[in-house]
């Protein structure tokens, strides 16, 4: 059984991804670490606990993480995800978080599971960057690290060049890319990770948790997208469950600075370049397989 540690800032698309992984019989979610991003870390931590409670998985430990980016003030995404960072009818969290900070919890899980562990990153990479600073050996001791982040040929969703998770903490993203050889799942593919309206209607008609899932899959009217809303973080979950992505090893760098290029992710794809590869970048997504994988997982919860 695959061991997965989820590092996230729930967040509606984070919630879809987390729910899908919880539903998978082949996945053991060993914990959720939270980070400031779509909302404050207080809210993202409460949201994680509420999601787990909604699906009867209070057994999964939650570790609260970094409350701000490494060197910048926090820019939240509540205009997209709703007040507190998560829409839908959710139970009030009654459990507690772990005594360990998320950074220490990550290190503990790497020690416990080694190369059987996948770290699935669905928010700003602050927790991972701090963990790497404390223990540079982490990438050599885990199975893989898969992160939703970046925009290469696609336009950004915060600025013309920057995707939200990277934009919030580009210093953290730069450290992770340069030291951890992650798999990056950028907007180039997640913009296609859309569930059809008929599937969202099926969730809603089930009532209960299904209505909440439907809320997660539908953005506010003012930002709603034609052809269905992109559930970006769910592409990470779908790949862990069904290998829906095509990957290409590329030399990647992150612009860590102020100005119009803040948070840009750049791949050096020049012919004949001798730049070392730093990440495996998802370049294509099997949309039908994505829909089957995420849809089947979510429907199994209802």
TrEMBL record:
Residue ranges of every copy of the Inosine/uridine-preferring nucleoside hydrolase domain listed in the record: 4-291
GO cellular component: cytosol
GO BP terms in the entry: purine nucleoside catabolic process
InterPro entries recorded: I/U_nuclsd_hydro_CS, Inosine/uridine_hydrolase_dom, IUNH, Ribo_hydro-like
Molecular functions (GO terms): purine nucleosidase activity; uridine nucleosidase activity
Signal peptide: none
Entry keywords, A to Z: Glycosidase, Hydrolase
PANTHER family cross-referenced by the UniProt entry: INOSINE-URIDINE PREFERRING NUCLEOSIDE HYDROLASE, URIDINE NUCLEOSIDASE
Name this polypeptide is given: Inosine-uridine nucleoside N-ribohydrolase
């Amino acid at each position: 059984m695959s061991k997965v540690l989820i590092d996230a800032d729930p967040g509606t698309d984070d919630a879809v991804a987390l729910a899908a992984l919880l539903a998978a019989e082949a996945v053991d979610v060993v914990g959720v670490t939270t980070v400031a991003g779509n909302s404050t870390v207080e809210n993202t931590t409460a949201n994680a606990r509420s999601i787990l409670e909604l699906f009867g998985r209070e057994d999964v430990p939650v570790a609260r993480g970094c409350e701000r980016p490494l060197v910048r003030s926090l820019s939240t995404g509540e205009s997209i995800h709703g007040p507190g960072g998560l829409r839908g009818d959710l139970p009030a969290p009654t459990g507690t978080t772990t005594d360990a900070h998320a950074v220490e919890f990550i290190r503990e899980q790497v020690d416990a599971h080694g190369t059987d562990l996948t770290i699935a990153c669905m928010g700003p990479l602050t927790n991972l960057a701090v963990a790497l600073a404390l223990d540079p050996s982490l990438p050599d001791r885990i199975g893989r690290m898969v992160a939703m982040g970046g925009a290469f040929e696609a336009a950004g969703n915060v600025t013309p060049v920057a995707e939200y998770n990277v934009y919030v903490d580009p210093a953290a993203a730069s450290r992770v890319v340069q030291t951890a050889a992650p798999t990056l799942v950028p907007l180039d593919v997640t913009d296609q990770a859309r569930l059809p309206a008929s599937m969202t209607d099926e969730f809603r008609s089930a009532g209960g948790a299904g209505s909440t899932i439907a809320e997660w899959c539908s953005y506010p009217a003012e930002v709603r997208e034609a052809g269905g809303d992109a559930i970006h973080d769910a592409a990470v979950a779908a790949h862990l469950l069904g290998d829906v992505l095509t990957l290409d090893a590329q030399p990647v760098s992150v612009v860590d600075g102020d100005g119009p290029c803040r948070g840009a992710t750049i791949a050096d794809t020049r012919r004949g370049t001798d730049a070392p590869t730093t990440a495996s970048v998802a370049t294509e997504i099997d949309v039908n397989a994505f829909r089957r994988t995420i849809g089947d997982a979510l429907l199994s919860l209802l």
